[in-house]
Amino acid sequence: MSSTRIEQLIADAQAAFDRRPTHVEPGLDVSSPALLQLRKACRLLAGADALRDEEFYTLVIEASFVAIERTVEFRLLERGTTDPDELPGTHPGVYGEAARIGTFSETTANELAELWRDHRAKTYYRDGLAAADRAEKMYALAEELHAYIVGQSGQGHECIC
Fold this sequence. Notes:
Blueprint: H1 3-18, H2 33-53, H3 57-78, H4 91-100, H5 106-125, H6 132-152
Helix pairs in contact: 2-3, 2-6, 3-4, 3-5, 3-6, 4-5
């Protein structure tokens, strides 16, 4: 491996993102920004479920947190309280916006933000250790929150879980 090779691979990756995609991930080829977020959440949950069996707990925890955020963003977009270009810029901000529109309580939003601050970043970036029990609990939370929000939606039939 050389720096020239790395530079070429970076350029290749950049070019791939610059081109219009031709083989889109199944289920994500939708025109609605809200449905795109919903289906990303569905795919993240499916991926996390598959990774649990492989004992990739770090990825299960990360995917579970991201699935929660995509599901909340689906609800914000569906309700028209935000535009796709104005989604909350911080992870805890997503939970606060969900509380603001009544998706769940302020207490729940604060607890989710605290969970994210105390454990997600620590597990993913720092010295926190991913473990089976932690991954299972986060996956269960993400799955339940997804079902709860989809149940409040008039577009629940678009869920691909």
